[in-house]
Amino acid sequence: PPPAPPYTPAVPPSQLDKGQTTPRAGTSLPFPGTGESCVSLPTGRQWTTGGGFANTTARPWYQDKAVAAYLKSGAEMPLKGMFNASGRVYPDVSAIGHNHLIISDGLSAYGDGTSASAPAFAAAISLLNNARLAAGKSPVGFLNPVLYAVAEKNPAAFYDITVGENRCGQMTCCPYGYGTAKGFDAVTGLGSIGDLGIIRDYVLSLP
């Protein structure tokens, strides 16, 4: 979204990808060697995930270190002056959002897009809130700073998605866009959840 509100996580879709990605560690998926890439034309989809620097929302403090590293990473991005380098960067994290299996009233279907990735991520956060409530604590609350803090403390909390870019849309490829990078980037954010246990332990350590 152009305004990119800094108060809730932006969660674009990623996809399972075998052959051009780093396999997820300790995965229970029945596909050995499978990792994740961003959803895009070059990675085999007919649509492309969004991401970038907001024009009208200043970068929040919790993104400063991550964005500074991304700007120095050498990743693909528009030419200097063509984007607001001091703006809020979105997304924050990613989640599987292609061929996402949905079961409702005993019927199965497949969903794509943020309509799949955002609810899946929200479900994971509900588990974190359940853990805090069981420990006699309040829900997590303002989540975004927590995500960046745990990623800085223990990068294994997130699976780093380093394949893909978002300059190619449904019909054609644009001259400029954003590419993935090691660590945080403007295509997949911090990545997808790699170890929910690490994140749970961190949020349980908070007051």
From TrEMBL:
<feature type="region of interest" description="Disordered">
    <location>
        <begin position="1"/>
        <end position="45"/>
    </location>
</feature>
<feature type="binding site">
    <location>
        <position position="160"/>
    </location>
    <ligand>
        <name>Ca(2+)</name>
    </ligand>
</feature>
<keyword id="KW-0106">Calcium</keyword>
<feature type="binding site">
    <location>
        <position position="183"/>
    </location>
    <ligand>
        <name>Ca(2+)</name>
    </ligand>
</feature>
<keyword id="KW-0378">Hydrolase</keyword>
<feature type="compositionally biased region" description="Pro residues">
    <location>
        <begin position="1"/>
        <end position="12"/>
    </location>
</feature>
<feature type="binding site">
    <location>
        <position position="161"/>
    </location>
    <ligand>
        <name>Ca(2+)</name>
    </ligand>
</feature>
<dbReference type="InterPro" id="IPR050819">
    <property type="entry name" value="Tripeptidyl-peptidase_I"/>
</dbReference>
<protein>
    <recommendedName>
        <fullName>subtilisin</fullName>
        <ecNumber>3.4.21.62</ecNumber>
    </recommendedName>
</protein>
<dbReference type="InterPro" id="IPR030400">
    <property type="entry name" value="Sedolisin_dom"/>
</dbReference>
<feature type="domain" description="Peptidase S53">
    <location>
        <begin position="1"/>
        <end position="205"/>
    </location>
</feature>
<keyword id="KW-0479">Metal-binding</keyword>
<feature type="binding site">
    <location>
        <position position="185"/>
    </location>
    <ligand>
        <name>Ca(2+)</name>
    </ligand>
</feature>
<keyword id="KW-0720">Serine protease</keyword>
<keyword id="KW-0645">Protease</keyword>
<dbReference type="InterPro" id="IPR023828">
    <property type="entry name" value="Peptidase_S8_Ser-AS"/>
</dbReference>
<dbReference type="GO" id="GO:0004252">
    <property type="term" value="F:serine-type endopeptidase activity"/>
</dbReference>
<dbReference type="InterPro" id="IPR036852">
    <property type="entry name" value="Peptidase_S8/S53_dom_sf"/>
</dbReference>
<dbReference type="GO" id="GO:0008240">
    <property type="term" value="F:tripeptidyl-peptidase activity"/>
</dbReference>
<dbReference type="GO" id="GO:0006508">
    <property type="term" value="P:proteolysis"/>
</dbReference>
<dbReference type="GO" id="GO:0046872">
    <property type="term" value="F:metal ion binding"/>
</dbReference>
